[in-house]
Design goal:
Blueprint lengths: L4 H24 L4 H6 L6 H4 L1 H20 L5 H18 L5 H16 L6
Helix pairs in contact: 1-4, 1-6, 4-5, 5-6
InterPro entries: DUF4064 (IPR025273)
Organism: Listeria weihenstephanensis
Protein name: Membrane protein
Amino acid sequence: MMSRKIELILGLIGSIVGLIAGFWIINYGNDLTNYIQTFTYLSGTFGDEVATLGWVTVVASALALVASLLIKKNPRGWGVLLVLIGILMFFVVGQIWIVSGILLILAGLMGIFRVPNPR
């Protein structure tokens, strides 16, 4: 069985940074509405609700945390989920997700494509 420490570490860091960003948006988003909306790709009711964007970020980050913790059991399945969360959240939250998104996408792609060393 191949060690998936790198995927686990990248996924954990990405999801924890995402959780921090989500709670930051929830707590301080109303004070920084113009900043948040500048970096959000959504417009209309959903894009205008800063707290909603924060909660979506928190839920997605929590799901990414679970996927990161379980990536050793099924690397391809959980890796696909990490990639989907990483990409989808760029469109939902925008550039505030850049660090989390890149780390989660890397962890997911490594889980999907990394092949065990032949011994």
